[in-house]
């Protein structure tokens, strides 16, 4: 590494990063990074609003935290409507990382997988939307599949999800400009292999600015990990930090 990096490591090596009470500045630095990333990804934040996020030790932890937030938010809404909330599910492609399967198993969530087909080795957005029902807490799309490195189309499920929610009474009239606030089934976007550089690449500038149902992204670099939720409203107050 560069000498400056070596000096930085040695100066901070005796700091306990997870002890936020003893070393509050580490938390402040983390929060600054979260907001930088949120603005880089054009998160729909108000002028005085800050993004919600946390540094994690790996992509698996980031997905677990996001999944728990989605599950609790869905449960709270179902309870408020007087409906059962004991059978949540998530919709993914069969090519997802194993941590999605672990999340489903550990936290009692049904995993509904879109099967792959010859010549098409990522999740088919249309088939994914067909699997969505009133118990779906999220639909997962991946940038950089660990199967073949391909990017799943994050934009294509947006309109079908809006139409489906309008049809089953889950959401209000579908609005392209405001679907971030209206859709109940969010689109988490895990960066399985290239989560950090992918959203700022030429091909995904459009997705970065236009895909509004996306409320969560975690980005992955070789030596760093950062999970992020777009807005505090997406994090239940019943979870730590909510």
TrEMBL record:
Sorted keywords for this record are: Lyase, Pyridoxal phosphate
Question: Any one Gene Ontology biological process term?
Answer: L-glutamate catabolic process
Annotated segments matching region Disordered: 154-174, 188-212
Q: What is its EC number?
A: 4.1.1.15
Q: Tell me which domain of life the UniProt entry assigns to the organism this sequence originates from.
A: Eukaryota
Q: Name one GO cellular component term.
A: cytosol
Catalytic activity of the protein: L-glutamate + H(+) = 4-aminobutanoate + CO2
GO MF terms, alphabetically ordered = glutamate decarboxylase activity; pyridoxal phosphate binding
Pfam families of this UniProt entry? Pyridoxal_deC
Q: Under which main EC class is this enzyme filed?
A: lyase
Required co-factor(s) are: pyridoxal 5'-phosphate
- What SUPFAM superfamilies does UniProt report for this protein, alphabetically? PLP-dependent transferases
* Coiled coil feature spans: none
Do you know which InterPro entries this protein is assigned to? Glutamate_decarboxylase (IPR010107), PyrdxlP-dep_de-COase (IPR002129), PyrdxlP-dep_Trfase (IPR015424), PyrdxlP-dep_Trfase_major (IPR015421)
Q: Record keywords: Cell inner membrane included?
A: no
UniProt similarity note: Belongs to the group II decarboxylase family.
UniProt protein name: glutamate decarboxylase
């Amino acid at each position: 590494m560069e000498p400056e990096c070596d000096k930085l490591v040695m100066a901070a090596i005796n700091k306990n990063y997870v002890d936020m009470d003893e070393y509050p500045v580490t938390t402040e630095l983390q929060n600054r990074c979260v907001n930088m990333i949120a603005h880089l990804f054009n998160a729909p934040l108000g002028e005085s609003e800050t993004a919600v996020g946390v540094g994690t030790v790996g992509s698996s932890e980031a997905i677990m935290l996001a999944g728990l937030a989605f599950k609790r938010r869905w449960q709270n809404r179902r309870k408020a409507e007087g409906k059962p909330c004991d059978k949540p599910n998530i919709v993914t492609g069969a090519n997802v990382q194993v941590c999605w399967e672990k999340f489903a198993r550990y936290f009692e969530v049904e995993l509904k997988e879109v099967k792959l087909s010859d010549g098409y080795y990522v999740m088919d957005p249309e088939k994914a939307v067909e699997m969505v029902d009133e118990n779906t807490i999220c639909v997962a799309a991946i940038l950089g599949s660990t199967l073949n490195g391909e990017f799943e189309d994050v934009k294509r499920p947006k309109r079908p999800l809006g139409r489906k929610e309008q049809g089953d009474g889950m959401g209000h009239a579908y609005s392209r400009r405001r679907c971030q606030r209206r859709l109940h089934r969010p689109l988490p976007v895990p960066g399985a292999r290239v989560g950090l550089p992918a959203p700022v690449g030429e091909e995904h500038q459009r997705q970065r600015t236009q895909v509004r149902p996306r409320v969560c992204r975690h980005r992955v670099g070789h030596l760093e990990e950062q999970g992020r939720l777009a807005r505090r409203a997406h994090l239940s107050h019943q979870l730590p930090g909510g």
